[in-house]
Amino acid sequence: MPKRLTKSFFNRSVHEVAPDLIGATLLVNGVGGRLVEVEAYHHTEPAAHSFRGPTERNAVMFGPAGYAYVYRSYGIHWCLNFVCEPKGSASAVLIRAIEPTAGLAAMRRRRGVADERLLCSGPGRLCEALGVTVKHNGLALDAPPFELLARQGDVDVVAGPRIGITKAAELPWRYGEKGSRFLSKPFRPEA
DNA sequence: TGCCCGATTAACT
DNA sequence: GTTAATCGGGCAA
Q1: Closest nucleotide (CA of A91 to C1')?
Q2: Of A115, A116, A133, whose CA–CA distance to A124 is shortest?
């Protein structure tokens, strides 16, 4: 049986947690799949929401590890993050894409598309498919409606530049499963 | 108070 | 390849 991820899993450097999340299973009310793409954010670099200090929106990032940080993007979409590191470091992992494995019918209904590869390949898309909204902001990741299971076996993890940002875009803090067909965008082929 | 911009997506040309 | 949709944070005035 897969091991359930607890708060101690997240209470480490965001750069250890992020690659370890690839291949793990995320379920929200039983709907979800395998994580295939995430990005790390840290308050010391300007692309992070926490860079300029605590606000009403990012308050959860400044709390303890193992909680969900959900924010509205471009006034339209929701984006899901996992808070990492000891309290106060204000770092988090953005969940960018999952490979759907559970609750496909619910995902198709919420998303209004049939193609598996369009259900969860992007931070806004996967939140819509899993029903994640601001109501989930601040909720613990080791209790319902969330369920997180450690990966089983080996996963080929690759890293590259983050997507959709202009600040600190050169940092290779995007992690994904090599060759996955469910990435929001492919990783550049390795040298 | 007003203005600009963003960790996005889908529908255009 | 380009652009609208849509809204809160951050900064200037």
Answers
A1: B7
A2: A133
The residue whose two tokens read 């995007």 is A174
Give the separation between CA A23 and CA A98, rounded to whole angstroms: 9
| Residues A36 and A97: beta-carbon distance below 8 Å | yes
Whether the CB of A72 is less than 7 Å away from nucleic strand C comes out as yes
pLDDT of A165-187, one tens digit each?
989 989 999 999 999 999 999 99
Of A116, A158, A162, A110, nearest to A131 (Cα)? A110
Q: Assess whether A79 (CB) lies less than 7 A from strand B.
A: yes
Rounded to two decimals, the pTM is 0.95
